[in-house]
Amino acid sequence: MNALNLAELGSRSCRGVLEIGSGYGGLAYLLANTPKVETIVLVDIPLNLLTCFYFLKRSLPEGSNVVLHANQESLEQSKAQGGTGIHLVPSIFYASLHDWPGLDLVCNFASFSEMDSETVDFYLRGLPESASVLLQINSNKPVLNTGNHTEVPLDNFTYPSKFVKIYEGPCVPSDSGKSRYKTTIHSLEKTSSGLTV
Prior knowledge:
Layout: H1 3-10, E1 16-20, H2 26-32, E2 39-44, H3 46-59, E3 66-68, H4 72-80, E4 85-90, E5 103-109, H5 117-125, E6 133-139, E7 144-145, E8 149-150, E9 163-170, E10 181-188, H6 189-192
Parallel strand pairs: 1-2, 1-5, 2-4, 3-4, 5-6
Antiparallel strand pairs: 6-10, 7-8, 9-10
């Protein structure tokens, strides 16, 4: 799946992508080069966002709109001005994204399973009102990871009732189907019948 496929998942007029767990910014870099996507919002802990900010500023053309939001006022100002570009948002401000317009597609790749159940629920309950598709690849086995943390299986996540699962499968490439990672796509009930994957 490439960045254009991700943009197509959102809707025919996908304008915005929210990635929960920014990593170093690789997906944002690819999406920034997709003409259809106007807004990319990355949510993570501040240390990860600093790495992401550095990567994006060094990799994207000079003058690219990459904003690291250090306070609530900055975030609200960008939202009021239409929010185009790439916005790096500390997880403490996540609730402020609830009414950010045009964030059609929400992605999470391998970080929900690293969180505890309450944190995953916090993110899923607080999805932006405009979200129409949730794409994720996460662990589906309660594996002990990084010290004493047991990963939360993807099948145990609680999704908002307005979303229905339209796709489920192993993460590809997988180890003959033995991979602990699984891909799911959830969509709004009203759009799920017209969405092709």
